[in-house]
Amino acid sequence: MLELRKDIFADERDDNLKEIGKGTQRQDMLGHVTGTSPYFDDHKLQGMLHLKVVRSAHPHARLRRVDTSEAERSQGVRRVIRASDVPRNLNTLLSLINFGKDDEPSLAVDKVRYKGEPIVAIVADSRARPTRRLPR
Amino acid sequence: MAKTPLQFRHNGRDVAIFVDGGTNLLVALRELIGDMTPKFGCGQGGCGTCSVLIDGELHLSCLTLAETVAGRSVETLDGLKEGPNLHPLQRAFADNFAAQCGYCTPGMLMAAKALLDRNPQPSRAEVVEAISGNICRCTGYEPIINAVLAAASGGRARA
Amino acid sequence: MPVTVKTFTSTHDAAAALSSDRSARYLGGGTLVMRALNEGDISISTVVRASDHAMTRIDATGSRITLGAGVTFARILVERDLAFLHAPARSIGGPAVRNMGTVGGNLFAPVPYGDFTVAMLALDATVSVQGGLGGREIALDEFLQSRDRQTGVLVLAISFAKPGSAEAFRYRKIARIKPKGGAVITLAAHLPVNGSRIVGARVALGSMAPTPIRARAAERALEGRSLDASTISAAAAAAVEGTSPGDNALASAWYRREIVGVHLKRLLSGQE
Ligand SMILES: Cc1cc2nc3c(=O)[nH]c(=O)nc-3n(C[C@H](O)[C@H](O)[C@H](O)COP(=O)(O)OP(=O)(O)OC[C@H]3O[C@@H](n4cnc5c(N)ncnc54)[C@H](O)[C@@H]3O)c2cc1C
Ligand code: FES
Ligand code: FES
Fold it and tell me: Within this chain, do residues B17 and B70 fall inside the same structural domain, yes or no?
């Protein structure tokens, strides 16, 4: 027989466990309505960098040339990540289940196949405007 | 490039910061003033979670050039509480389950405040219109609409 | 890369700053300019503002109405004398976008935006612009045709004659998301009537070409006629003539061509 450890949640609910028939406020609600619930974007870490993805403006197009020179020269840009830097995409459903075939690159190689497909990723000191260069 | 000094009223308090040219108000509030209540959703005007009141009017802080609020009054969710007490809208949102993940809530509350400040007894259609620039991916909007109506009628939760 | 923000009290100086620098962009309400900056658009390096009150003036007392380029849609919505423009103003964005977006910025808004400009085009509006060399008045129709080359000018105001009667001006925006959303298409018509005949018909369409355009064939089908069923059918059939809509996520060019006549018919016959 499972022993009910009422002491564990003692400060969060009545000891009598009579919950049915009355409303229960969610624990995170106060944070939500006061804007104090922390989200991913609210973290400020020491030395935190920001990554911005440059995406295709075209539904289907050949990538003849990706010119990142301007981005690389921009103030505050630490690194420009190109497709060749991430040859294997470890994060597709197929690769996660070890399907073997991996035909969805993290960053587009040679060709973009949908509008919004990632082409390069720019790592910078701040989110404020990493530069954008659209390929043809 | 030199930064520009900027002074404005933030939830009733005068603040002075230095901004880079082109900085939007959302970045200024979050990164320079440390008010994390307006959220970044899209930076494109599409989601409304960055909504703030500027001189009492609803604006999207992500599309507001920070320098344009010089000398003006900016209100965010951080200023909504009345001392230690929740604002009636906050109370109504909590009572009506008008937040699930809560990410849209700051913008929804500011949009609702902008409405009730002008129109204390809105119709349902007016509430829908007032939050039409705010996207909520969780609640399906009904609890939010009910919460705003409940706050307007001064009533507590409707079941 | 931060941009330089320059604020001028005189429109003349603002115009000079715009015309002398290709990478300068005027900031109206900023709903489109800030989007571009947030995305890291490197073609903009200077943002120009003008604080002259003339930019935000509304003159709606007489028969000719003038709206300063910096007038927001929210301001139009509280102006009784501009009741006929409430439908187009209300059809734009959510409330925050209406508090921010301006009449002047709307002239430059790309598809699927530019709804207010469609209304202005049907009212045969005139745009006052200030260039580096001086000011001039230009018909909106002509302004839109050369819009790509209008960078570097400052729009001061837009003016038009007030429609003679409330029914003479009609507006309809087709959107998938209500009460907000980008237009599938937008239609506006101005049909002044003399006796029982339409004189000076104007029909304007949005999202049927890269900029709002006049549906001249439909206008011809209306001109000099009375607004009866056969006139309406003829105008609806001609609506698609001269259009060049594009595909976007809201609708395909084919769909836009298919529905433009249907909606013009509904607009003209006063159907909901
Ligand atoms: C969420 C969202 C929803 C929207 N919904 C709609 C909609 O339903 N319908 C619609 O039509 N639009 C819509 N828009 C687009 C836009 O808000 C409007 O078209 C608005 O009118 C643009 O005006 P603005 O003053 O904000 O433009 P700005 O961003 O300030 O300017 C836009 C362009 O016009 C130029 N410009 C502005 N004013 C002048 C001037 N006086 N002289 C010379 N150039 C000038 C700028 O340099 C810039 O190139 C929407 C935008 C957003 C973000
Ligand atoms: S972050 Fe401003 S509207 Fe989405
Ligand atoms: S509560 Fe999650 S987006 Fe609205």
Answer: yes
